[in-house]
Amino acid sequence: MWNEEMQERVNQRITYISRLFLVIIIILSLRFWYLSILQGDWYKQKSEQNRVRIISLPPIRGSIYDRNNQVLAEDVPHFRLVWEKGGTQVRLEEIEKRVEKVLKKELSPPFPGRGVGEIILVDSLSLEEVIKIEEAQNDLPGVMVESYPVRYYPRGEPFAHVVGYVGKINAEELELLRSDDYEIEDRIGKVGVEREYESFLRGKKGYRRIEVNALGEVVGVLDYHFPYFENSIVLTLDQEFQEYSYELLGDRSGVIIAGDPYTGELLALVSKPSFDPQLLSKGMTPEEWNALVQDQNRPLTNRPLQALYPPGSLFKLVIATGALEEGITSGDRKIFCPGFLDYNTWRYPCWRRGGHGAVGIEEAIAQSCNVTFYTLGLELGPDKIINWANQLGVGQSSGIDLPGEKTAFLPTPEWKKRQLKEMWYPGDTINLSIGQGYLLVTPFEMYRVVSNIATRGEVYKPHVVKKILDSEGKVVREITPVRQDTIKLKDSTWKTLIQGMEKVVKRGTGQVCRSLPVELAAKTGTAQNPQGEDHSWFAGFFPSSHPRMVFLVLVEHGGDGSGEAAQLAKKLIEWWIENRGENGK
User: Fold this and answer.
1) Pairing between strand 52-57 and 206-212?
2) Is 313 designated active site?
3) What is the pLDDT of residues 191-234, one digit of tens each?
């Protein structure tokens, strides 16, 4: 029977359930308020992100010019054909047939996709094909022409080591630069100026915002922002002079460097053999890359900055400097050269078998007398030799604005004992005194030695970039001369070194350049090479009284320095005087 007690229980349950529903309604209302009011913007943004996709467009890199505004590297537009498969009801097979009919050629499926409902039908279109596609646009729903930049190096091999090249970013570079908005398909400078000035040349990315449906298919393009470049770079190099220097070496391997000693500007920086930067920028197969890397001629090596050679008699300038500064020799002292030096049980020859007779330091520089420098080197000792080499710039980084610079290997008694477990012998010092033995230097270090003599100790920072321009061609940064150091030597030391180098040309080992219409100071060098014929060096500056250019020529396996290197240097100077004038830039 139904009674009051049962009625009361029912009423309690109804009250409990009502309160429970009320609590649930309150909780749901609060949750709705939280989601719609407090988190509304966030969910709206997430919804927008699911509806809208952003496709990054590669930046346009700035151009690179020579000092006379000749293009050395630039981006040129290429075109690809893209189909947005969600933007039309037409199937891919039908689109393929229509495009083939318009272009009058077969396409090559399977077509790569880009993960946003887009398919690349043709990766490279000619300008004529672009026009055909545009004219047939009404019959090609969802099809569009997309522009993308490709790096172009019109001057090729002569500039490859300086200008460099770009390539796809690798995993290591991407990990390092991800915070700078780099992506997996981006281009990046790999070597040379392209790498050193990447932050200036890179440019700004563009983007295309597209709308997609729930299936991820493209509905339409919402917005398009074009990529652009920010900066271009003007180099100190002279395009015509660089190309002439490169051609001058012919089929020889070697180095030519020329520059202004008082500004640090480099007018030519040649490394041969070289490589085609266009091939590396475009991309090579593993087989092609391995063949290039394993090439015994080492075309990828930037010889002026990265290759190590015995300097031969060019190093005698270091010995002469040390001997003069230490008071071991002077303009009055003469050393007799019978054509050899007997030391203990060994005989060390001079290059002139009959000897030079009694010669002073200037004449010893002019004639490159081995016996004189054997004697001075022994009196200096290895530690002082290395010290003076350091002071003149050997074994010191120059600070040049190019990546990968190496420095000399300067042997010492401590090194030989530690590495070879042998003592240092007087014969090691004798070999060191004429730039042989264990000593190895880069050509650029010897160029710096000669440059520092030309300026009488004013050391200027070398550079290959002259100025940086903005997108309107206005100068935003000009590279001005920077004096890095001052080498303090006695005036008489500088005078003796320069007069000795002048005599090299007037009546010494560099007489091949005597007919030049400019006063020249120079030094020859013949470096013995265990792998074959001697290397040929010739370096100097002109005019000797007020130098405007320093130069260095190295010919691998070129024989003695008075031969090939000196003859090439003569042609180099003749070209400069004829085409640019003695002080021309």
Assistant:
1) antiparallel
2) yes
3) 999 999 999 999 999 887 777 666 555 566 677 788 889 999 99
Backbone φ, ψ for residue 539 (5° rounding)? -145, 150
**Alpha-carbon distance 234 to 237, whole Å?**
9
Q: Please give the structure tokens belonging to residue 93.
A: 């097979």
Tell me the average pLDDT of the chain.
Answer: 90
| Tokens (6 digits) for 53 | 């996709």
Amino acid, single-letter form, for residue 217: E
In this structure, are residues 245 and 258 in contact, taking their beta carbons and an 8 Å threshold?
yes
Annotated catalytic residue within 313, 536, 544, 562: 313
Residue 46 structure tokens: 């997430």
By CB atoms closer than 10 A (0-12, 13-18, 19+), residue 174 is middle
Q: Is 75 left (phi over 0), alpha (psi -120 to 50) or beta?
A: beta
E strand segments, 39-70: 52-57, 64-65
Please report the pLDDT score of residue 582 as a whole number.
65
- Tokens 């130069």 — which residue? 551
pTM: 0.87
Whole-number pLDDT of residue 115: 62
pLDDT at res. 48: 47
Asked if 439 and 319 count as a contact pair (C-beta separation under 8 A), the reply is no
**Angle between the 127-135 and 92-103 helix axes, to the nearest 10 degrees?**
120
Given a contact cutoff of 8 angstroms between Cβ atoms, the answer to whether 495 and 325 are in contact is: no
Q: What is the pLDDT of residues 536-583, one digit of tens each?
A: 999 999 999 999 999 999 999 988 757 899 999 999 999 999 999 865
Both tokens of residue 363?
């004449």
CA distance 502 to 278: 43
What DSSP letter does each residue of 361-384 carry, written as one string?
Answer: HHHHHHHT-HHHHHHHHHHH-HHH
Average pLDDT rounded to a whole number, residues 178-198: 92
